[in-house]
Write a sequence for this structure.
């Protein structure tokens, strides 16, 4: 009998089992510690880093739905949202930011280091008082003696305090009044690059955040990614939708960790029928959320990070917010003594608040379209 082909669901299930086993044997991680290099390198040694990209451009072991699901596995098994986001960032950078724009063996070597757990890379786009608006970004790169000199500032760089290298977006020219951007791989120990505190270092531990100051930072031309002065449109512009889609998996996993904790505590507490009904309602709602998260990731894989997906994510974020509020209200009424719940809840509130203004703009646009467009099923007065 011929071997049957492995379906995507089976492959994802196998990766999930491998990830759970890797997490079970990983070194312990404390929220108050610096970035856990030993934990990270353990995942690399167990081939659980770089599953979403291949350094040589071959097919990866995980597609976007599998990446989202694995982020959820990490969040649920570790009860550390920050760990899940750090892992997710590694896969996003390898698959979406660096991988499609590899131009030489140095870029491929960086991807291998990321997959092996030897290189931690962070993405630096946003700037003080500018956010990520292309007209307002000022960090610039200019050619000098066959190299590039980078000058400017970057803010709120996730994984920045522990990063070995940064992918920095910088203005490299202006065409017809529009800034043109390139992406540069800048080693953390490069002369002219200084990490600065932001006051948010403890946000989503052990992920960590920092700011960057670049003052005549010398970067070899070989460290420029192959974005052909179009790095903003290729990387920064679609990143919000891509990140929101994959964050859904991590958040759903963290919410399942909350539910697991509540269930453990109730097993020895003789819960009332009303308590069981409310706990069951949270479980069923989370099952529905899981379906929406998976649908969002499948749409990303099929169509890329487009406007329709961004709208879906905005709606899903509202559902996640309401579930989280209900879970916290339920836990408060029970006076739950599960010690991990406050940490998970706090992390989830932070993630749910990311880019809140972007979501509210989509709510306004959707509402405006609803009242300004006459649906064809309406009956004339």
């Amino acid at each position: 009998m011929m071997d049957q082909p492995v379906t995507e669901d089976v492959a994802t299930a196998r990766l999930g089992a491998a990830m759970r086993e890797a997490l079970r044997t990983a070194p312990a991680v404390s929220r108050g510690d610096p970035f856990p290099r030993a934990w990270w390198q353990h995942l690399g040694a167990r081939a659980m880093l770089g599953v979403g990209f291949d350094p040589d451009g071959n097919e990866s072991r995980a597609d976007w739905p599998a990446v989202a699901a694995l982020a959820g596995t990490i969040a649920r098994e570790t009860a550390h949202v920050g760990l899940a986001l750090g892992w997710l960032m590694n896969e996003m950078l390898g698959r979406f930011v660096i991988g499609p724009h590899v131009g030489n063996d140095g870029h491929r070597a960086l991807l291998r280091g990321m997959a092996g757990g030897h290189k931690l890379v962070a993405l630096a786009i946003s700037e003080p008082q500018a956010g990520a608006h292309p007209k307002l970004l000022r960090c610039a790169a200019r050619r000098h003696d066959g190299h590039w000199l980078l000058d400017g500032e970057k803010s709120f760089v996730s994984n920045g305090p522990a990063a070995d290298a940064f992918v920095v977006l910088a203005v490299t020219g202006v065409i017809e009044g529009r800034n043109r951007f390139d992406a540069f791989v800048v080693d953390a120990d490069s002369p002219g690059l200084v990490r600065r505190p932001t006051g948010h270092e403890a946000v989503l531990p052990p992920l960590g955040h920092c700011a960057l100051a670049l003052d005549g930072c010398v970067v070899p031309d070989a460290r420029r990614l192959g974005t052909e002065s179009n790095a903003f449109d290729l990387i920064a512009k679609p990143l919000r939708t891509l990140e929101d889609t994959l964050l859904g998996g991590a958040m759903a996993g963290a919410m399942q960790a909350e539910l697991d904790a509540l269930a453990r505590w109730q097993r020895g507490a003789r819960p009332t029928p009303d308590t069981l009904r409310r706990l069951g309602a949270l479980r069923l709602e989370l099952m529905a959320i899981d379906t929406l998260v998976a649908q969002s990731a499948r749409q990303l894989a099929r169509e890329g990070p487009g406007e329709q997906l961004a709208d879906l994510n905005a709606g899903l974020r509202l559902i996640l917010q309401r579930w989280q509020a209900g879970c916290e209200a339920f836990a408060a009424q029970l006076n739950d003594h599960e010690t991990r719940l406050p940490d998970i809840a706090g992390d989830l509130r932070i993630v749910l608040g990311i880019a809140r203004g972007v979501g509210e703009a989509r709510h306004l646009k959707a509402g405006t379209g609803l009242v300004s467009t006459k649906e064809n099923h309406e009956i004339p007065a």
